[in-house]
Amino acid sequence: MSDYNILIAAELNIKSWQVQKTVELLEGGATVPFISRYRKEMTGSLDEVQITAIRDRLLQLKELDKRREAIIQSIIEQGKMTDLLHKQIMEAVTMSELEDIYLPYKPKRKTRASIAIEKGLEPLAKILMSQGYMDVHEKAYKYINPAKGVEDEEEALAGARDIISEWVNENRAARERMRNLYVRQAFIYSKIGKGKEEEGKKYENYYSWDENLLKAPSHRVLAMLRGEDEGFLKLTIAPLEEDALNILDRIFLKADNEAADQVADAIKDSYKRLLGPSMETEVRAIAKEKADAEAIRVFTENLRQLLMASPLGQKNILALDPGFRTGCKVVCLDKQGKLLHNETIYPHPPANEAKQAANKILNLVNAYKIEAIAIGNGTAGRETESFIRRIPFDKDIVAIMVNENGASVYSASPVAREEFPDYDVTVRGAVSIGRRLMDPLAELVKIDPKSIGVGQYQHDVNQNALQKSLEDTVVSCVNNVGVEVNTASKQLLSYVSGVGPVLAKNIIEYREKNGVFKSRSELKKVARFGDKAFEQAAGFLRIRDAENPLDNSAVHPESYSIVKNMAKKLGTSVNELIEKKEIRTKIKPEEYITTEFGLPTINDILKELEKPGRDPRTKFDFFEFDKNITTINDVKVGMTLHGIITNITNFGAFVDLGVHQDGLIHISQMTDRFISDPNEVVRLNQKVEVKVLEVDIVRKRIQLTMKK
């Protein structure tokens, strides 16, 4: 383990003691959010990204150890283990290095080389490999053995070359140099499958394509791999054959004679039949893993931005799930998101009951003291927005378009059925739209992130890696914001550090039976909410209107004594310490350092006292689409429009213009300077001004630019 600490520390450019302490905390059951927020002294203030990297790399190394043990056992059973071989196995730090060492000892099915060895041709292979001056046919003549299937000199030489080919393939130095060549200089070649030209039209760009694999962007790699999986494209990954053979010749050729010619032929055969295909498989896996990692990074960054979108806050909401023929489902929600009323209105064709619908909306707004209206941005969204804006309300009512991606998935989910067993999917969908306006994070955690509509190629990447990364992102966001324990759903509570689904269910059941929690310490009365769970969770759970104001803050209960000491020293109360800045300015942080809590924790406490329980999300920003632009037919080249960033990919960003078809800002149209990551310029849900470059109504494509 200590060796791993040093290795991980070197890879992450941190101290080995930081790795050691982090590993101890992780193995003791601490979560990433808890360690990064409340154990800064122990880790040297490592952040979530670094702690997650330590956790994941440690897991990789443990998997490496499992494989190492299996390899050692296999070689011992074969009776081939030596001290040198054992040392090499123990020193291997990558899976490829470990597998290269094991390859000569790996049990194989019958190969051309093993057949040749059975025919007694291994000594001839060794003679040829020495590359001394000789008559190779004369040497081969001695190995003719019809009883074993060696009829003449040519068969003997062919068998010997097969053995040499396998030696070349299993040579560690050859594999390492070939791997480096493939990683750096391999090209990915794509061509259309025979007779697939029409059927595979969407892959037209890759009918005849080649580029350096190392420089190929992840979205192109994933697109070509998908095309191959679907049977439209044929891919090859390889460097120039001449470069590969030159490397192998330099390793294995020692002379210029007949024997060396035989070795050269074996080298060429080995590259084409064994080593080349093996390296292509490896590099394909490396390229896929790299492309997956980039696609997952894009997806998780988009998800983080979406989850951390500005909440409107606790308001009485009227929400509409728009529709034409089936009408618009209307729901009224109170400040906690509780469903109070639902019905359907028909303001659009074919019913055209706009007047009756407007009267209903007016009555509902007054009856339920509605403060804001949420409108889903799907079918009939803009038409419904226009209808709402024409209603003469007698007070200011804001109407806001809400991205409804995933609302239909939620409405048909077990979570929604559990929440609203007596209502159909249309009611549940409208509720989700309204709650999403109030608090995007609290509502979106109920939906599988892959259904939210952000990211690229999410169905093509490693699903386990994607799920793990998305879950890490949700956990990070939930704990960054904090959770009000008396109003949170079971799904939201389950993402709190140390809680999980079982404890979340127990918290809800306790709350329903005993009423609201009055203090954090009361959480210990919840079934199975032990000391460890309390340690991990308490700082992230908020209790509004608690007797102790710190219960509604990010100050951990283990640090309450520090705040009490501050108040005592200054002759005041904790409440006054929070309320009066002039008192807080008298605090000298260094006076409160203890053996357990250092300056990082004291400074965090002071920041929290400035604004207890502050929401790190930005303030809600109201936005309206151009009232004259409602369909793609209204969009003309040269127009300047306002829109909202809905998705960010490696090649650009998509913008909702309010016409039911997102436009694309290609990465080259974002700024005059070169960028490789659109996140440098835009963020999800950002309001942007764009100019229309091209409109293709048939293919439903809108090309945009942000350049002035």
Q: What is the percentage of strand-forming residues?
A: 5-15%
Provide the gyration radius in Å.
33 Å
The CATH superfamily of the largest domain bears the name Tex N-terminal region-like
| Biggest β-sheet strands, sense, barrel | 5 strands, mixed
Give me the count of strands.
Answer: 15
CATH topology of the largest domain: Tex N-terminal region-like
Shape: globular
Q: Structural class, from secondary structure content?
A: alpha/beta
The first-to-last residue Cα distance is: 56 Å
Question: Residue share in helices?
Answer: 40-55%
Q: Reading side by side through the largest sheet, how are the strands ordered?
A: 6-5-4-7-8
Report on this structure:
The protein has 708 residues and is α/β, with parallel strands linked by helices. It has 5 domains: 2-105, Orthogonal Bundle (Arc Repressor Mutant, subunit A); 112-299, Tex N-terminal region-like (Orthogonal Bundle), CATH 1.10.3500; 317-438, Nucleotidyltransferase, domain 5 (2-Layer Sandwich), CATH 3.30.420.140; 494-610, Tex RuvX-like domain-like (DNA polymerase, domain 1), CATH 1.10.150; 632-705, Beta Barrel (OB fold (Dihydrolipoamide Acetyltransferase, E2P)), CATH 2.40.50.140. Helix content is 48%, strand content 12%. It contains 29 helices and 15 strands. The strands form 4 sheets. The protein has a 5-stranded mixed beta sheet with strand order 6-5-4-7-8, sandwiched between helices. Strands 11-12-13-15-14 form a 5-stranded mixed beta barrel. Strands 2-1-3 form a 3-stranded antiparallel beta sheet. A hairpin with a 4-residue loop joins β14 (687-696) and β15. It is globular and about 105 Å long. The two termini are 56 Å apart.
